[in-house]
């Protein structure tokens, strides 16, 4: 049963060290968050799962990690300078600013006044000075999407790998948008991460590939614990499409605050490669090729036999990491009533996403033999390379189990007197069933590996 309110998640995230308001000690910074000790593990695990599925388990995708600071020409020809805007209205009474399309009525949600300005376009990109002269002549943008650097590196990747469509380029990284009204915890923020794949295909096969990628992505989210039944497909109406898109399907998740976009899967056609390509002689294939583009390259592929050039179409599954973390947390959260009248809070993450894989708990924290054995087991399990294994130093087994339920640790391994004095076995306790079983220390590595397989 997912969390019933955003407040419950926000509170758990702060209390247990998943997510903190950034610059908290100075009153915070609106729409900016920091990931704490468990949040960084969860986020890294989600990104690793995406990378595994997109790059390692496929034979048709290459990876990229491009710079965040972006040449303004890239974002001029991509269309972002002109069109990457949200409609902004000001309240003349209290001076609050709002996104016009988020207002349900023409009334300031802050003070109730109806004295609002007409909406005007507000560009969401952050600009920053490059180099020591800040007279505005040399500046870069913080990228508003990771995608553009995939397009501008298209030629480099093709030349380096000899790839031909269908193939993709995957990237995970930060993106920045100066959102007018960041809100709903990490759902709408100004600094976030995206996991984006640009999958290049022959024109004419694009619609088929688009549908195939929608199915792929639904299956992937399901494997992260975000089930198909909690996602709705929203086919974006033509008049709401982004400037580059021929068709977009949004995966809409039931977030605690409402049903909103988790991932967008767009058919960007040849818009971007065409826009970044200079029209050269006979090369005017792509409808969007800019005759006076400043780029010096042809972002296209040549048929080795006929020598004709084609600008591939691109299908783009673009997921937000932070929205993914929020969805995974929400799905994992449950409060269970126990037989003894108490309750426990559990984050039932899929094992590969759990921030801590195994907690090793010594029954007595001052007993040299038990402590030494527990530390040795911690080292042994860490060496399996499954992720973080924690040596738990509290000495209170019951409390340790509750705490690890609440942060989603799948297994707790308890070292007690029997371990060192009797039979060299430990108790392994399962987060979901709370079942406990004795496992020989010599067999523990295989037991844990099997669990996480
Ligand atoms: N390259 C395509 C693109 O950027 P988008 O729909 O604007 O498309 C893709 O963004 C994903 O990035 C969204 O589905 C969402 O998960 C995430 N995202 C966008 N803006 C965000 C924000 N302000 N805060 C958090 N995540 C955001």
Return the average pLDDT rounded to an integer. Answer: 93
Q: According to CATH, what is the class of the largest domain?
A: Alpha Beta
Instruction: List the total number of helices.
Output: 13
What is the CATH topology assignment of the largest domain?
Answer: BirA Bifunctional Protein, domain 2
CATH superfamily of the largest domain: Bira Bifunctional Protein, Domain 2
When the domains are counted, the total is 3
Bound molecules: glycyl-adenosine-5'-phosphate
Record keyword descriptors for this entry:
453 residues; alpha+beta; BirA Bifunctional Protein, domain 2; Rossmann fold; 3 domains; 7-stranded mixed beta sheet; 5-stranded mixed beta sheet; 30% helix; binds glycyl-adenosine-5'-phosphate
Architecture overview:
With about 450 residues, this protein is an alpha+beta fold. Mean pLDDT is about 95; it is low at about 280-285. The strands form seven sheets. Strands 3-10-11-17-14-13-12 form a seven-stranded mixed β-sheet. A five-stranded mixed β-sheet has the order 21-20-22-23-24, sandwiched between helices. A three-stranded antiparallel β-sheet has the order 4-9-8. It has 13 helices and 24 strands. The two termini are about 25 Å apart. It is about 30% helix and about 30% strand. It has three domains: about 5-85 and about 125-330, Bira Bifunctional Protein, Domain 2 (BirA Bifunctional Protein, domain 2, 2-Layer Sandwich), CATH 3.30.930.10; about 85-125, no CATH class; about 355-450, Anticodon-binding domain (Rossmann fold, 3-Layer(aba) Sandwich). Helix 2 (about 35-55) packs across helix 9 (about 320-330). The radius of gyration is 26 Å and the shape is globular. The structure holds glycyl-adenosine-5'-phosphate. Glycyl-adenosine-5'-phosphate binds near residues 177, 318, 319 and 323.
């Amino acid at each position: 049963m997912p969390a019933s309110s955003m407040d419950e998640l926000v509170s758990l995230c702060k209390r247990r060290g998943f997510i903190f308001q950034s610059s908290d000690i100075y009153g915070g910074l609106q729409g900016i968050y920091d990931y704490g000790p468990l949040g960084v593990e969860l986020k890294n695990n989600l990104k690793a799962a995406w990378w595994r599925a997109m790059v390692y388990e496929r034979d048709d995708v290459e990876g990229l990690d491009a710079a965040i600071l972006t040449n303004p020409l890239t974002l001029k020809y991509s269309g972002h300078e002109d069109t990457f805007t949200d409609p902004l209205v000001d309240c003349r009474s209290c001076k609050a600013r709002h996104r016009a399309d988020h207002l349900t009525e023409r009334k300031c949600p802050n003070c109730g006044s109806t004295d609002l300005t007409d909406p005007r376009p507000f560009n969401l990109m952050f600009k920053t000075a490059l180099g020591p002269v800040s007279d505005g002549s040399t500046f870069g943008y913080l990228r508003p999407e990771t995608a553009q650097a995939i397009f501008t590196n298209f030629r480099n990747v093709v030349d380096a790998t000899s790839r031909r469509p269908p193939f993709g380029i995957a990237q995970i990284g930060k993106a920045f948008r100066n959102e007018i009204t960041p809100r709903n915890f990490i759902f709408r923020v100004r600094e976030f991460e995206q996991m984006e794949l640009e999958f290049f295909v022959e024109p004419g096969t694009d619609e088929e590939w688009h549908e195939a990628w929608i199915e792929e992505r639904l299956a992937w989210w399901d494997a992260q614990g975000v089930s198909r039944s909690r996602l709705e497909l929203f086919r974006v109406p033509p008049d709401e499409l982004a400037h580059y898109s021929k068709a977009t399907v949004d995966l809409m998740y039931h977030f605690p605050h409402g049903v909103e976009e988790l991932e967008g899967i767009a058919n960007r056609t040849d818009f971007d490669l065409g826009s970044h390509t200079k029209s050269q002689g006979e090369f005017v294939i792509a409808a969007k090729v800019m005759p006076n583009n400043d780029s010096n390259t042809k972002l296209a592929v040549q048929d080795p036999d006929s020598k004709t050039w084609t600008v591939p179409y691109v299908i783009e599954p673009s997921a937000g990491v932070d929205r993914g973390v929020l969805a995974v947390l929400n799905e994992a959260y449950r409060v269970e009533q126990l037989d003894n009248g108490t309750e426990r809070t559990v984050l039932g993450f899929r094992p590969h996403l759990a921030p801590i894989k195994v907690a090793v708990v010594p029954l007595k924290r001052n007993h040299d033999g038990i402590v030494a054995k527990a530390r040795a087991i911690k080292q042994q399990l860490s060496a399996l390379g499954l992720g973080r294994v924690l040596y738990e130093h509290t000495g209170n087994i019951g409390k340790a189990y509750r705490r690890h339920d609440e942060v989603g640790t799948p297994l707790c391994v308890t070292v007690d007197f029997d371990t060192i004095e009797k039979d060299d076995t430990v108790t392994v306790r399962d987060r979901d069933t709370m079942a406990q079983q004795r496992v020989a220390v010599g067999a523990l590595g295989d037991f844990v590996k099997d669990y996480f397989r």
